[in-house]
Write a structure and sequence with these properties.
The complex is a heterodimer of chains A (238) and B (700). Chain A is an alpha/beta fold and 238 residues long. Chain A contains 9 helices and 9 strands. In chain A, 32% of the residues are buried. In chain B, strands 3-2-1-4-17 form a 5-stranded parallel beta sheet, with helices on both faces. In chain B, a hairpin with a 5-residue loop joins strand 11 and strand 12. Chain B is elongated, with a radius of gyration of 29 Å. The chains are: A alpha/beta (238), B alpha/beta (700). Chains A and B meet through helix 3 of A and helix 24 of B. The structure holds flavin-adenine dinucleotide and iron/sulfur cluster (3 copies). The site of one iron/sulfur cluster (SF4) has 15 residues of chain B, from loops. One iron/sulfur cluster binds next to helix 21 and strand 21 of chain B.
Chain lengths: 238, 700
């Protein structure tokens, strides 16, 4: 799941202060689970902006709205007419949602109300941790199910480094050394000897550095395209 | 199954959440009430000091609510879910309290109803059933006439139930509410004698026979006929209408039911010191309510169990006593009432007056030779699915057809009859349209929940001491004062008023499941909150990040909308800070409401329901500060509330700080309640002072 966290109100204010009608638009999936940008938080941010505007003596109309997800158009399509009544949409969805919506609002800008932080798990209520970096080429079977890319401060592929210290990372004593965890876990699994194989240099082109990534499922696309074609030849418009 | 909406049906008062409640299982108290009074709703309103709204909820299904607050056998209490924890809620006493608090309100709200239907209905009998039908039909817009053979309205409530249990002023208020709608009343008018039933049927578009059971049954034993042997109903009628019945010094009442209790206890109040009873049943088998028996025993009434009447013994004209025979068994092998006797064991119970109280029957002699047929046992033939007799347009309701029961059951049946009459008058089919009596209800509390709830004994009301109360017909129960009522109302677990999930919004984040102290939510693809577990504490709703949870009763959204009005106008030249105080209405209570004027109170069912957003919105509305006023430690009836609310207040403070406010503008205030004075006024005044130091917003 995507974890995000709210931006400080001052930063938000700087973004929104020159607009008259602002919609704080929440997403009720991942960022709601981490209490950053669901409908409830959107409402809270809206209230904070109104108060800030009051302090500045600015006339501003600030409302809020929420839909289930911002990363699929069907979810926000039904409210698009409403959304388009505003001068600015402050989205509290993750960055995916901000991008995605921004492509569909014409002249109306979509700004981010939260910082999209990482892919994480809910370790305990209110505690979210990063466990995967979305590198596009998973090696967890070789590292005891613990991701060195996301969890090693230096993204080492063959660790630990000399900075490991009683299971903690030299970067901070609050960070577990991922390679220490890997070794311990593989000991437990009886697969420690696998680590003696050197992991060859990785091809990072599957990760962030090769331009935006796309997954295209041929079997689903093929059908969709056929349908689109049918509609087109029937004189229909999509 | 949801009931089909009937066109033109009057709209009774609906508390917040009433619509959604209809789609969910009823609280057991409500399901048990024959009229389905929403006990949970009104008890909760009482707990918040909202007495007039409580009154509306109480009277919406029940036109004789004052009466019921005195004499109802309260099946709601018998089925209260609190029974599994300690003792049932004192629902009837709370009802009385709310009604007493609403006397001026109710008188002021009496209104004539426009007669829009252009049709008329004649109602024979003014007992609970007839009165209910009269009220409903007037509300529907019909012209209604009531025909009553007695000089006053009320049926058995006026003519039989002794005044020491039912003060007539209470009955009068109920009747006045109904009559004020514009109902024609014909008292001293006996149908069959003064007007013939067929004539009546011609005068009206429909007729309702609601004549109850007005004849006492007698016993076919030697010696019954003659002076000194009385029947229950005439005896009680004499007392009710201020005619002194002729009783001796030693009264024996035959019978073991509730009416027998009334007769015996009434005899005591006529100055008879020696009153005894004789009944077939053992103490455990007696049909009378246990509390009635206990109160009778307190009044030194003796009960002879397991004796059957054999003959009235007389000396000349005078009654000497009752010869009785020992009962072997009251019920036969299949559990049916079929007493058997041991004829070798007999005895004489001495008495100079005997009152027979073994049941009632209806007087339907006036129906002979009319279009209304009687069955082979002389009872009115009727169809329970339509409430109609064999004569078209002539309906029946109440005890005349249902047999003996309670006043509130007669009310429930009166509602059905009124609806049937309305459908009939509109030319619609009746069958299948009358509401089902049985309602789905919330299960009893699971043991793992019961053990999490603190025991809190029921607050019993006081009675006049037996020595005092037997001297007169004065009402013997002493109602709650406000403090007692609030305390008792606070015991209610709010069954059915708890959390519901909007499944279109829930995204299965598990927050509610993690938070609930009682394990009520189960989250699979969406959350489902199990009503039998939910204690309606309200903790989960403000935490749901998708705003998917609302509370059926007393949801904060009810107050959120009006928050700006509640905070009110902010004077730019004010001297005192405007403080928005969210107040827990339990414990802190309505009693603490006497607060400085600059404190604008926002009563909440429990501080658990307040959201960070509510705190912010109060500031947004212009308040100089926000107080969350809650009870002192250990008095909250829910679990985990304090620490969750602490966390929310802390978050609110952080957000305020981000805006450059002093975070101290949001604070939790609490005080130990119950130690006299007004501790909440003191803490609020103190807080005001601190805010003054911080400065008033927008002033110099
Ligand atoms: C002594 C006693 C104590 C009771 N205590 C309780 C109690 O504590 N709690 C409780 O819930 N219930 C109690 N009940 C039961 C309750 O009173 C009845 O359930 C209720 O009154 C039945 O209502 P009803 O409308 O069917 O008939 P009723 O109340 O009997 O009303 C019928 C009316 O019709 C009138 N009538 C009859 N024939 C004619 C005619 N031909 N023309 C014109 N008018 C006519 C009668 O005068 C009467 O006023 C008690 C009953 C009795 C007798
Ligand atoms: S606790 Fe309250 S709501 Fe629940 S059954 Fe008892 S009276 Fe009704
Ligand atoms: S807290 Fe709200 S969104 Fe989360 S599971 Fe419960 S009802 Fe669903
Ligand atoms: S937290 Fe309270 S209101 Fe919510 S489900 Fe649990 S008991 Fe019910």
């Amino acid at each position: 799941m995507i974890i995000g966290s709210q931006k400080p109100i001052e930063e938000i204010w700087e973004m929104v202060k020159d607009f008259r009608k602002v919609l704080v638009f929440g997403c009720n999936t991942c960022v709601a689970v981490c209490h950053a940008g669901g409908e409830k938080e959107a409402e809270t941010i809206a209230s904070l902006i109104r108060m800030r505007a009051q302090q500045e003596g600015k006339e501003m109309e600030v409302n809020h709205l929420g839909v289930m997800r911002h990363c699929e158009p069907e979810y926000f399509d039904p409210v698009m007419d409403e959304v388009k009544k505003y001068d600015l949409v402050l989205s509290t969805a993750c960055g995916v949602g901000v991008n995605f919506l921004s492509d569909r609002t014409g002249n109306i800008p979509v700004y981010p109300g939260i910082n999209t932080s990482f892919y994480g798990a809910v370790e305990a209520p209110g505690n979210f941790v990063e466990l995967c970096a979305g590198c596009g080429n998973c090696i967890l079977h070789m590292t005891g199910g613990i991701c060195p890319i996301a969890r090693c401060s230096k993204t080492l592929m063959n660790g630990p480094c000399g900075g490991t210290n009683n299971g903690k990372c030299e970067v901070s004593k609050d960070i577990d050394c991922a390679w220490f965890l890997i070794v311990e876990r593989m000991k437990q699994l009886g697969t420690l000897e696998k680590l003696s194989e050197v992991i060859p240099p990785r091809n990072w082109s599957t990760s962030r550095d090769g331009g935006p990534r796309r997954v295209s499922l041929e079997h689903i696309r093929a059908y969709e395209e056929q349908e689109a074609q049918k509609a087109a030849t029937a004189g229909g418009k999509k | 199954m949801a009931q089909e909406k009937i066109e033109g049906a009057p709209m009774p008062y609906r508390p917040y959440g009433a619509e959604i409640k209809e789609t969910r299982p009823y609280s057991p108290c409500r399901a048990a009430c024959p009229a389905h009074t929403d006990v949970q709703a009104y008890v909760g309103l009482i707990a918040q000091g909202r007495y007039h709204e409580a009154f509306e909820v109480i009277t919406a299904p029940n036109p004789i609510a004052s009466v019921c607050s005195m004499i109802c056998h309260h099946p709601c209490e018998q089925s209260c879910r609190r029974c599994t924890i300690d003792e049932p809620l004192a629902v009837r006493h709370l009802k009385r309290f709310a009604i007493e608090k609403s006397l001026d309100y109710r008188r002021a709200r009496r209104r004539l109803v426009q007669k829009t239907k252009g049709k008329s209905v004649g109602i024979i009998g003014s007992g609970p059933s007839g009165l209910t039908a009269a009220r409903d039909l007037a509300d529907f817009g019909y012209s209604v006439s009531i025909y009553e053979r007695h000089p006053v309205l009320g049926g058995m409530l006026a003519s039989a139930i002794p005044p020491y249990r039912l003060p007539r002023e209470m009955l009068k208020e109920d009747i006045d509410d109904v009559i004020a709608k514009g109902i024609e009343v014909k008292t001293n008018c006996e149908i069959g004698k003064d007007v013939k039933i067929d004539e009546l049927a011609k005068q009206h578009d429909a007729v309702l026979i609601a004549i109850g059971l007005s004849l006492s049954r007698s016993l076919p034993i030697p010696g019954v006929d003659g002076p000194g042997v009385l029947l229950a109903i005439p005896f009680l009628e004499d007392v009710a209408f201020g005619r002194k019945p002729c009783v001796g010094k030693k009264v024996l009442v035959i019978g073991g039911g509730n009416v027998a209790m009334d007769v015996a206890r009434t005899a005591r109040r006529l100055g008879v010191k020696d009153v005894s009873m004789v009944c077939l049943e053992s103490a455990e088998e007696m049909p009378a309510w246990k509390w009635e028996v206990d109160e009778a025993l307190e009044e030194s009434i003796k009960i002879n169990h397991r004796w059957g009447p054999k003959a009235v013994r007389r000396e000349g004209d005078k009654v000497k006593g009752l010869e009785v025979v020992k009962v072997k068994a009251v019920f036969d092998a299949s559990g049916r009432f079929n007493p058997s006797f041991d004829n070798d064991q007999t005895s004489l119970i001495e008495a100079d007056t005997i009152i027979i109280t073994i049941g009632q029957m209806s007087d339907v002699s006036f129906l002979k030779d009319s279009a209304v047929s009687l069955d082979e046992r002389g009872r009115v033939k009727w169809d329970p699915a339509t409430q109609m007799s064999s004569a078209k347009g002539v309906f029946v309701s109440g005890e005349v057809v249902t047999g003996p029961g309670s006043a509130i059951a007669a009310v429930a049946n009166g509602h059905r009859a009124a609806l049937a009459i309305h459908l009939y008058c509109q030319g619609e089919a009746i069958e299948g349209k009358l509401p089902a009596q049985e309602k789905e209800k919330i299960e009893q509390m699971p043991p793992e929940v019961v053990e999490k709830i603190a025991k809190e004994p029921r607050l019993e009301i006081k009675h006049l001491a037996p020595e005092v109360r037997c001297d007169s017909m004065v009402h013997f129960e002493i109602g709650y004062d406000e403090e007692e009522a609030l305390k008792e109302a606070g015991r209610c677990r709010g069954c059915g008023g708890g959390a519901v999930v909007d499944q279109k919004k829930c995204m299965a984040c598990l927050t509610c499941m993690r938070i609930c102290p009682y394990g009520a939510p189960v989250v699979t693809s969406v959350s489902e909150i199990r009503p039998e577990y939910c204690q309606a504490c309200g903790l989960c709703a403000p935490e749901c990040p998708a705003e998917a949870i609302s509370m059926v009763s007393y949801d904060v959204r009810e107050i959120r909308r009006t928050l700006p009005q509640t905070v009110g106008r902010i004077e730019p030249n004010r001297q005192e800070p405007v403080i928005a105080a969210f107040m827990c209405t339990h414990h802190v209570g309505v009693l603490g409401f006497d607060l400085p004027k600059n404190v604008r109170t926002i009563p909440v069912h429990c501080t658990s329901r307040i959201d960070v957003l509510d705190l912010l919105k109060a500031i947004e509305a212009g308040a100089d500060a926000v107080a969350v006023v809650r009870c002192g430690d250990g008095t909250c009836k829910y679990r985990d509330v304090a620490r969750r609310v602490d966390a929310r207040v802390k978050r609110g403070q952080e957000l305020l700080k981000m805006l450059g406010f002093d975070p101290g503008r949001i604070e939790i205030l609490s005080a130990a309640s119950g130690n006299g004075g007004n501790p909440y006024a003191a803490v609020c005044a103190n807080f005001s002072e601190r805010i003054k130091q911080m400065g008033l917003r927008g002033t110099k």
